[in-house]
Amino acid sequence: MSRRDLPMAPQDFYAALNLRPELPKNAHDNSMTSCANWCWRLCYQEYILARRPASPGFGLQYGRAWHKMHEVLHKSGSMSAALDVADEIIPEAIDDKYGRSRSRIKEAFIAQINYFESLDKRFEVVCVEQAAEAHCPEGAECVYQWGGCNLQHGGKADRLVRYQNKLWLIDYKTSTRKDPSFADKMVMNPQFLGYAWIYSHLMGEKVWGTIVRRTISNKSNFEPEPYINVISDGQIKQWIRNQQELQVEIKRRFEQHAFDMGGWPTNPEGCWRYGKCEYFSVCTTPDEASRLKQLAAEFVEHRHDYYAL
Ligand code: SF4
Ligand SMILES: [Zn+2]
After folding, report:
1. Is 153 exposed, middle or buried (0-12, 13-18, 19+ CB in 10 A)?
2. Which of 77, 189, 279, 281 has the most beta carbons within 10 angstroms of its beta carbon?
3. Strand 159-163 to strand 299-301: parallel, antiparallel, or no bridges (unpaired)?
C-alpha cells in the first residue's frame, strides 16, 4: 500500500493521529448499512474511524428533539413534559434560516399531535423506540422466503403498532420544505424495509408497511403531511439481496482499506441531503494527509453502539 501524500506508512500516520479504524461489532445495523448505501466516505469517517462532529448540527438536534418529544408524550401522556424536551435539547438562542427554533418546534409538535391525534387513537402501540435485532440463518423458518433469508440486521423504529389486526411501522419526520418526490423516495427506502424485515421476524408475522407522520415546518408554514407505504414481499426480497451485498462489501472494504480513505469513495450528491454534510470541509480538502489531520483535530471519537443509543 502506498499513498504519496502521507508522510509515513499509513498505519503509522493513523496511529500518530490516534485514528483507530475498527469494524463496529454491529456492522449489520441499519444506521451503518444505510450510511454505507449512501456514501462510503461517510461510513468510513463516522463508523470505521468513529469520528463525529464535536457538537451535532442544529438539524440533528432538531430531529432528536422531535423523536424524544413523541416518546415522552407516549410514555407520560403529558404534553407539557413533551414540550419540556424542546427546552432541554434545543438551544434558546437558535433561530435558523428555515425558521426552526425552540418555540417553533413546540408549535409544530402541538399542530402535528392535534392533526393526527384522532387518527392515531385507532392504533394499538406494540413498542416505541426499542432497539431490535433479528437473525434469520439459512434453513430457518421464515415469513418471507423458504429456507431463510441468511441475514442478520438490527435497528430502532420510531414505533410499531397494530391496526385492524395488522402490524404497521410509524415513522415521524420533519422537513423544512415540501418535496414532490418524497413519495417516490420512500418506496424503496432501505430504512423502512429494514425495520419491516426485523419486526416481521421478531413478531413471526409480516409488517404491512409504514405510516409516515411528516410535518413541514418553516418560517411561513406548518403542514402535517400523512403518507402511507404498503411494503410488498418483492420489495423485501430485493432489500435482502441489497443488504447481503452491502454487508459483504462493508467487510471487504474494511479488510482491504482500513488505512486508506481513498478506498471509500465520496458521494457528491449526498453532501447536501439534509443541509450541508458535517464532514463537508474534510471531504473538500484535497490531500489525504490534511483530511486525516482535520478529522483527528476537529472531530471527537465516538464508537457506534446502537443498543446504547
Ligand atoms: S461531505 Fe459528501 S462525500 Fe463527504 S462524507 Fe458527507 S456526503 Fe460523503
Ligand atoms: Zn427470514
Report:
1. buried
2. 279
3. unpaired
Tell me the ligand closest to 137's alpha carbon. 2
Q: Which residues are registered as beta bridge partners of 125?
A: 161
pTM of structure: 0.87
Q: Is 233 left (phi over 0), alpha (psi -120 to 50) or beta?
A: alpha
Higher pLDDT, 219 or 167: 167
2 pLDDT above the threshold of 60: no
Q: Could you tell me if the CB of 43 is within 6 A of ligand 1?
A: no
Which phi-psi region, left, alpha or beta, contains residue 241 (left: φ > 0; alpha: ψ -120 to 50)? alpha
For CATH 3.90.320.10, list the domain ranges present in the chain.
125-247
Beta carbon of 35 within 6 Å of any ligand 1 atom: no
pLDDT tens digits for range 140-152: 999 998 899 999 9
Whether 115 shows a pLDDT value over 80: the answer reads yes
Edge-to-edge order in the sheet of strand 166-175 = 124-128, 159-163, 166-175, 207-217, 222-230
For the domain spanning 125-247, the CATH number is 3.90.320.10
Test site for ligand 1: of 261, 279, 291, most ligand atoms within 8 A of the Cβ: 279
User: pLDDT value at position 95?
Assistant: 66
What number is the average pLDDT over the span 206-231?
86
| Residue whose C-alpha is closest to residue 14's, from 301, 283, 304 | 301
**With a 6 A CB cut-off, is 41 part of the ligand 1 pocket?**
yes
Ligand 2 centre distance from Cα of residue 205 (Å):
11
Report which residue type is found at 96: D
